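One chain shown below:
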Amino acid sequence: MPTTKKSKSESTPEVPLRFEAAAEELESIIDRLEQGDIPLEESLAAYGRGRSLLTSCRSILDAAAAEIAEVDLDGMKDDADSNV
């Protein structure tokens, strides 16, 4: 069975990435998949990695949105307390 050469990102263990790094890697995977010139097995591995990165990015964005909402609520509470 022939082996396929994996990119560095596909052969490394799952390590939490910063949002920017995850988004950049995801973009790279999308570009490679859109070109359509990689073997099927590598495409499937890249697709799986892309889904994992997308999930990670969404989690980071959801956490940031929750933090922003909390700060907004705290700010509104402080404003209401100062008006009393």
Observations:
- The chain has one domain: 17-82.
- The mean pLDDT is 83.
